[in-house]
Structure formats: structure tokens, C-alpha cells
Amino acid sequence: MSNLEVVAIISPAPGKADRVEELLLQLAKHVHESEPETYKYHLHKEIDKKEPEFVMIESYKNKESLKSHQGSDAFKSLVKQITEESLLAKPLAIYMLKAAGGFEKRSKI
């Protein structure tokens, strides 16, 4: 069975990109240290706009691993902070994907 790939598009509210990035990096650190069935958790930042969007590219062992991630205290805390601080311009766009072709070289970001 192949991995479950997830792409999340995060659109910060005007002036909130730095705070959103801070929270996403905190979560990424937690995921790296605590979620062994999360194989990839790459945060990307758009560079061509004054108000950048973020793209999180994720890879999980399976659906259960994703559910575990979404049920973690760290993830729930992120969602709570984003909501309470009104950090997003629009709701998250989340895409669950299966690879259809191509390749990935081994690299560390």
C-alpha cells in the first residue's frame, strides 16, 4: 500500500503571515519529534506576493496516521490558536492525494 499524501493550502489574513509561519513551524517540530508515521512534513512559503500563502506537503503511512496527526494535542492547539487569533483569510484547503507518477530524489530540506 502506498503512502497517503496531503497538501494543505494556508492563507493568512493580511499582516498575519509571520504569526502563521511561527505556529506552523512549531507544529512541524512536534511532528518531526513525535509522529514516526508522518514521513514528510514540508512547509513552503509563496514568494511572489506581499501576503504569502503557505503550502504544507505531507506524507503519512496511512489514513490512521493522518487521523492520529489530526487528533494530536499539538494539532488541536494550532487550530485553536489560528481560530482564536483570526489568523486566516479563508478556510484551509486540504487535498488528500495518491501519487500518480513522477519521482522524488532523496533530499533534506
Question: What's the layout of helices and strands?
Answer:
Layout: E1 4-10, H1 17-34, E2 38-45, E3 54-60, H2 63-71, H3 73-84, E4 93-97
Antiparallel strand pairs: 1-3, 1-4, 2-3
Helix pairs in contact: 1-3
Q: Summarize the helix and strand pattern as letters.
A: EHEEHHE
Distance between the termini: 26 Å
CATH class annotation: Alpha Beta
Strand content: 15-25%
Total of DSSP H or I helical runs spanning 4+ residues: 3
- Cα-atom Rg, whole angstroms? 14 Å
Q: What share of the residues lie within helices? A: 25-40%
Shape: globular
pLDDT averaged over residues: 92
How many structural domains can be distinguished in the coordinates?
Answer: 1
Would you write up a description of this structure?
With 109 residues, this protein is α+β, with helices and mostly antiparallel strands. It has one domain (4-97): Alpha-Beta Plaits. The protein contains three helices and four strands. A four-stranded antiparallel beta sheet has the order 2-3-1-4, covered by helices on one side. Strand 2 (38-45) and strand 3 (54-60) form a beta hairpin. Helix 1 runs antiparallel to helix 3 (73-84). 13% of the residues are buried.
Structure summarized in a few sentences:
With 109 residues, this protein is of the alpha+beta class.
